[in-house]
Design goal:
Radius of gyration: 40 Å
Strand order of the largest sheet: 1-2-3-5-4
Distance between the termini: 136 Å
Strand content: 5-15%
Oligomer: single chain
Shape: elongated
Low-confidence stretches: 1-33, 116-121
Number of helices: 12
Largest sheet: 5 strands, mixed
Order of helices and strands: HHHHHHHHHHEHEEHEE
């Protein structure tokens, strides 16, 4: 019985104790994964690409500077430096595009070189000098020089972090690329609106000089072919009349009468020439009277409305007069219009001019009717020139000028 109890007790203990768990070898943990977001990978790609691109840019800048500075003693030094700066501009453009794509930096393109906005007749020396003075090119070169040691450091840090410090790598690359963002904004973006205005004024100054030279040539040609030629004929006619005065008074009188007609024509041509330089009616009575006089010579009836409480500065008034004068000449010569209108008024700090006609339309800046020159002249004084001229008409041309008091 004792044996049975023992057996029963042993059996009960055996049933009450849990069986020991069977031991199985633990499975290895899965390898670490780089669960970085897309922007982190773009920043890593930017930092790793820094070194080869910086190496190329550094070699380009050092070679260009050393070669061009050495050759400045010869005639090819400055053109070579100008070409190098233009090449640096292209490197800067590449870096801005890369920063926009990989770093999500919003950076605008700087102003183009001023001579690209000017006519093809610009001199080679002027183009070289403008390129040598180009601040955008110089800042691009400075960027390439500064970036070389920085790119070596960032490349080493990023490459090491990929294998050693990957848990904190996103924070590291964000800090490094923030420095890159600051460099791009500081050296490769337009410095400010002043730089853009300087470039525009450089271009506009050339337009003004070219326009003034063209006007002087026109005046010289008109004097030579017009009034001067008539005065020479007049002197010759009076000389012949003087010789015939005693021999043939009737013939001499006829010559004098003919000379008198030549004098009238010469005076008219001189008046027209003076009107083309600066009409007296504009000086004495202002835009309303001067534009009415211009409109009276147009082949189509023109309604002139000038709504100005005070007169603008003489220079602005003169530009407005010649703008309307040339536009009305185009109406007479090219539009075939039956009616036209001129409106002039002031809006805040702007003088607005609008010339309308119901002609055939089709006017544009490349049409060869002088409107391109007008646009350049207005742009030279910070003005604006807009054409709306569909084929078949009507044509509406709006010009704006800055308002300046007398």
């Amino acid at each position: 019985m004792t044996d049975a109890l023992a057996s029963s007790t042993g059996s009960g203990r055996s049933n009450s104790r849990p069986e020991p768990a069977s031991h199985t070898p633990s499975e290895p943990l899965p390898p670490a994964r780089f669960a970085f977001e897309g922007q982190t990978w773009r920043e890593i790609a930017h930092l790793l690409a820094n070194l080869p691109l910086a190496l190329f840019g550094f070699v380009y800048v050092m070679t260009a500077l050393s070669t061009s500075v050495f050759l400045t003693l010869t005639v090819i030094g400055f053109p070579l430096l100008a070409a190098a700066l233009m090449g640096a501009r292209q490197l800067g453009r590449l870096e801005r595009a890369r920063a926009r794509t990989l770093l999500r930096v919003r950076v605008d393109e700087p102003s183009p070189l001023p001579f690209r906005n000017r006519r093809a007749g610009e001199g080679f020396v002027t183009q070289v000098w403008m390129s040598v003075k180009d601040p955008v090119g110089w800042r691009s070169m400075l960027y390439e020089l500064i970036r070389m040691p920085w790119s070596v450091a960032t490349f080493a840090i990023t490459l090491t972090g990929l294998f050693v410090a990957w848990p904190v790598l996103p924070y590291i690359v964000r800090g490094l690329t923030n420095v890159d963002r600051a460099m791009v904004r500081g050296l490769l973006s337009p410095s400010d609106e002043l730089e853009r205005r300087i470039a525009e004024l450089e271009s506009d100054r050339g337009v003004v000089v070219d326009t003034a030279a063209a006007d002087l040539r026109r005046i010289e040609r008109d004097l030579h072919d017009g009034a001067q030629a008539r005065l020479v004929n007049l002197a010759m006619g009076l000389g012949l009349a003087k010789e015939k005065l005693l021999e043939d008074p009737d013939a001499a009188a006829s010559m004098v009468a003919e000379a008198h007609g030549e004098v009238k024509l010469a005076l008219q041509e001189l008046r027209d020439l003076a009107r083309g330089i600066h009409p007296a009616v504009l000086t004495d009575r202002g835009l309303d009277a001067a534009l009415s006089a211009v409109a009276s010579r147009c082949t189509a009836p023109v309604k002139v409305t000038v709504d100005l409480a005070v007169r603008p500065a003489a220079a602005i008034e003169g530009i407005a007069y010649f703008t309307v004068s040339e536009l009305l000449q185009n109406v007479s010569k090219h539009s075939g219009a039956k009616s036209a209108a001129v409106d002039v008024w002031r809006s805040d700090d702007r003088l607005l001019i609008q010339v309308w006609d119901d002609g055939c339309g089709g006017a544009d800046l490349n049409g060869g009717t002088g409107v391109a020159g007008l646009a350049e002249r207005l742009d030279a004084v910070d003005g604006l020139f807009v054409i709306e001229s569909p084929v078949g008409g009507p044509t509406t041309i709006t010009a704006e000028l800055p308002w300046r008091e007398r």
